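Same chain as my last thread, 75 residues:
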Amino acid sequence: MLDILFTRYLTKKGKLAYIFGQIAIDILILLYIIGIKDMSLRQAQPVMITSFIAVVFIWGGICLAFFKDKSTEQK
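reply #2:
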């Protein structure tokens, strides 16, 4: 849902950076939580949900700062 909101204002290059960056960061978080902290999926569920939501906002803001579509600013 938030992805649609962020990608509406991004360039094509920004949309690709947003999607691939978000997937990469989510995988790194999963590897850290499950691999390094050695938590089970049930134990890690609240942490994963919170971190995934945080990644959406933080990475979306970074992508909007660097890849904002100039044509949507006038609307």
